[in-house]
Amino acid sequence: MEPDSEYWDWYKVRKAGNLTELRQYPAFILWNGGDGLRLAVPKGAKKPEGRGWSLAKRGEPRPWPAAPMTEEDLAKEKLLGALIASPVPLGEVKKNYGRFMRNYRRAQALAQMGKGKLLEELEKMRPWWEEVERCGFEVYACYGFRFLDLGEEVKAGFRETATLADLAKRAREGDEKASKAWERLEKPAVKLLEAKPKRLRRAPLWLTRSQLERLLYALSVVYREDKGGIEVFLAGDFSIAVRLGAGNSNLLVVGESQTGKSTLVGCLLAQLARWGWPENILILDWAGEYTFLEKCGFRVLEALDPVCNPLALGPAAALEILQQAAYEAAESERGKFGVWGLREAEKALMEAEREAAQELEAAVKEGSERGGTLIDVVRALEKRLGSARTQNERDAVQAALNRVELFLHPALCAREWALPEGRVVVDLSGLPGKRVKKAVGLTMLRMILAGAEGEHAWRGLVVVDEIHNYIVPTPAGPDCPVVTDIANQLSKHGVAVWAVGQQYHRVPVGLQGARATAVFRQTHAEALRAVELSMGREAAETVRNLPPRQFYLFADCSVPAVRAPPPIAEKVAPLMAASKASRENRQLDFQRLAARLGFEYADLVELYVRYLPHARALARFALRAASPEELAEVRSLDLDAKVAMKLGELYAIRYGLLPPGGERLGA
Q: How would DSSP label each residue in 230-287?
């Protein structure tokens, strides 16, 4: 807990406004020790609220070793440091300006007589006074310093130097000499914190408004959050701590194609890969870009194979998952209907809803209680369809069957687990089209939400790529309800969401309050309007004109600024591009293949999942390249030779041994 100050009221600066607003105070302090810009004004004074300032109350920051601010520091684009500033009265500035101009004219006269030394000295000062004139004679008297870096060499004693990090370690271990050296280096910061808010009459620096504005920006940029979690850098000068269950660790990254948004998230995940925490990271990878993380210890699960099992959470949770995911998947298609067609579809659905829901509930319960998968639910519904006595019964069962078949895919038929544990990339790139990708993704997200409570609840970080593909119409506007619910409800339960999308107006409502939002270039009118409503007109103009590989970072912990991804992006970008390219044209449409092979779709899914452990032997059998051991393995499977051949060809296509349109398919 930060202490209150005796003389100052301290504020966290969320957005820096016009400096003129600070001229009402005899003195003020600007401070950034790494945790963002802070402003101190005299105790009890009204805080600046106009001209663009946005502040939040904070306590007094802790001192840190520092050195006096130099001319070089004033020219830096980013700086960790602090200063106390006092507005110089206008009359005093003009008086000094007049004195300078008289001396300058006198020096010009002397120069004509061959005495030009004084003019040379005054010429060096002339640009500064010209800037004073351009700034309307707005000048501030300042005393400032920069904070020392941990790797910097400092004086540790008589004829002894050490790095600041080494000095801190020795001081913690009880070294008296190191402790005294540390206290000596802290003195400038301590002196500033103990200063009284009165006008500075003797200050080493006089800064024009323009100079102070540049220094204000340099102090605003840097933010380091290296405590309370795993530190990840969004830019070289900005980091946040990922701390699940202890606050908001949600992140939103949006940008048009080829602007660098996915690379930024890849950089963050590559940084997390170096740590053993969080233990669970689930990446729903729309295009296969994040599969490069396999080299960093992540496990890649291709969504063409079993990934999860909604029924493993129990019948009640499974039913809710299927109903909600089916609703969201169908809602995303609303724009394809006319108003009349949509109303008729909703009316017909409502009429059959009650009986269909009862049939679905019974089938899900039957499949779940015996440790089954969606295949077992389909089988139970098919059995009920065959025994139905009336047309109403058949319609209800068929409606339930249609709903389940929307999600019937090998990816959702894993018997072994509900959700994959550990650090996992779920590669959706092989799925045939947006509908199937969305069905698998929504189901997994619904499973995270439904299983949030209980002893075996999933805890960790979920990354949703191409979030705009999951957006559906809602009464309150476009949203992805499941992501919004996870963001709003599960942060205290140890779940965080990172989402990557293209346009700012098509993002989940729950992520509009993310810990940090990185906005790459936006040119769509509605996206710019959404940025303006959320961040202001200046932000909208900024993101409209951003070049590639730069983004506007908006976070409650720091002043908004244009930044670039961290240096690691140069290594990550080509890895991601290669991963995506290697997965192009590898889509596999099980429904189309089932028709060509002469299978019912549910039969093909069941066979594919059941015999997946024998995929290699079956594929080589179909290619007539099986070894004697593999032939024996195929014969032991109790499969008809023709079925084994077709299934083997399917596996051969799945693993790239045959092209998707191979001539032998179904022969």
A: EEEEEETTEEEEE-TTSS---EEEE--TTSSHHHHHHHHHHHHTTSS-SS-EEEEESS
Q: Which residues pair with 241 in a beta bridge?
A: 231
Convert 130-158 to b/e letters by CB count within 10 Å (16 or more is b). eebeebebbbbbbbbbbbbeeeeebebee
* Of 238, 170, 226, 192, the residue nearest 560 (C-alpha): 238
Residues in the chain: 667
Give the whole-angstrom CA distance, residue 448 versus residue 454.
Answer: 12
- The set of residues, in sequence order, having a beta carbon less than 8 Å from that of 254 and lying 6+ positions away, is 261, 500, 501, 502, 503, 504, 507, 517, 518, 519, 520, 522, 527
Q: Is 490 exposed, middle or buried (0-12, 13-18, 19+ CB in 10 A)?
A: buried
Which residue reads 């829901």 in tokens? 357
Residues 147-204: pLDDT tens digits?
998 889 988 877 888 999 899 999 989 999 999 999 999 999 999 999 999 999 888 8
The full set of domains in the chain, from first to last, is 8-89+132-221 (no CATH), 243-310+419-582 (3.40.50.300), 313-405 (no CATH), 590-654 (no CATH)
What pTM, to 2 d.p., does this model score? Answer: 0.80
Identity of the amino acid at 266: G
d(CA 77, CA 353): 62
Separation of CA 611 from chain center: 39
Spatial separation of the C-alpha atoms in residues 531 and 525, rounded to whole Å: 10
Q: Are 485 and 343 in contact (CB under 8 A)?
A: no
Q: What are phi and psi of 523, to 5 degrees?
A: -125, -15
Give the CA angle between residues 530, 330, 389 to the nearest 5°: 165
Q: What digits encode the pLDDT tens for the residues 226-263?
A: 666 788 999 988 988 888 877 788 999 999 999 999 99
